[in-house]
TrEMBL record:
UniProt domain Periplasmic binding protein: residue ranges: 30-276
Organism of this sequence: Aequitasia blattaphilus
Family: Belongs to the bacterial solute-binding protein 2 family.
Compartment(s) where it occurs, according to its Swiss-Prot or TrEMBL record: Cell envelope
Name used for this protein in its record: Substrate-binding domain-containing protein
Length: 308
């Protein structure tokens, strides 16, 4: 709890060299730019950064926009950070098409990594979960539940982010190949945001045969679950992101299946892999983290990783 509170203070006071996660070794520093700091997922990610920084004796300069809608703010933060004395940088891009700052990193000899979400059309090493596979795995459960027929809806975070786009592509691709299930709608722009009730009602009224809604992040999924419960709807939800309220929603049946996409593990592995590759010159295989799918049947075997 103390570590989490200190992280919140560091994030609020701004981006200066002193706003480090303060660790023993001052000779190796990793800059990390997340998409936001406004959700339990990102606070868990920061906890993973903290623990990995201690375990591997590195400094971390962490900066974040307030929300995932501030692509311009994030771009300026990245540019400013690249002008500091850092040995590597990890970025979770709000806009996966924006590569305006990559030339700066290359000119300065600063290795750049993508974390949590990859880039489009550029070869930047990625550290994070296999978003495409998570979409496929949840689609498989959807196809089984709907017996290969009916219709589904998709509520996604911003599709300018590679992570959300890959989740949707994995989900739709699996259903197209293995079922006759129709995709009734795909709406995007809900990264850590809840849909207004009026919009949910309109979607449901226009699609009375809907059997499942796939949501690419837990915050939007929980808001939808609240609405469906109030309406006593039989529509099921599958979603992703590991956070305590989402775990509870799986336990009580408000979310049918959850991809265990751990912010803590993502943050920890980002620091570990960059340290071992850049500082320690180890040759590591390019591997992505794999999320297990949690349902009411197996949820009791899991706790939030890295949390007390």
């Amino acid at each position: 709890m103390i570590v989490t509170c200190m992280c919140m203070v560091w994030l609020l006071v701004g981006c200066t060299a002193k706003d480090n996660i303060s660790i023993k070794n001052t000779e190796f520093t990793i800059g990390v730019v997340t998409k936001a700091k406004d959700s339990e997922y990102w606070m868990s990610y920061i906890s993973g950064l903290n623990n990995a920084a201690r375990d591997f004796d590195v400094n971390v300069i962490l900066i974040s926009p307030q929300t995932e809608k501030e692509a311009d703010v994030q771009r300026q933060m990245i540019t400013d950070l690249l002008n500091k004395d850092i040995d590597a940088i990890a970025i979770s891009p709000i806009d996966s098409r924006d590569i305006s700052y990559i030339d700066i990193a290359q000119e300065k000899g600063i290795p750049i990594y993508a974390t949590d979400s990859a880039y489009f059309d550029v070869d930047i090493p990625y550290i994070g979960y296999d978003n495409h596979k998570m979409g496929e795995d949840l689609a498989e459960i959807t196809a089984q539940y709907l017996k290969g027929n009916g219709s589904v809806g998709i509520i996604s975070g911003s599709l300018t982010q590679a992570g959300h786009r890959e989740r949707v592509e994995g989900f739709c691709g699996y259903l197209d190949e293995h079922s006759s299930i129709r995709t009734a709608f795909v709406i995007d722009g809900y990264s850590n945001l809840m849909l207004p009730e009026t919009e949910i009602k309109e979607l449901l009224d226009n699609n009375p045969d809907l059997g499942m809604i796939f949501v690419t992040n837990a915050v939007a999924a929980l808001g939808l679950a609240d609405y469906l419960e109030e309406q006593e709807s039989s529509i099921k939800i599958c979603a992703m992101d590991a956070q305590q309220d989402a775990y509870e929603a799986v336990k009580n049946g408000r979310i049918m299946a959850l991809a265990n996409h751990s912010g803590y593990e993502n943050g920890y592995q980002t620091i570990r892999r960059i340290t071992e590759i850049v500082r320690d010159h180890k040759e590591l295989e390019e591997t992505m983290l794999q999320a297990e799918i949690l349902t009411k049947e197996n949820i009791y075997n899991y706790d939030l990783q890295g949390e007390p």
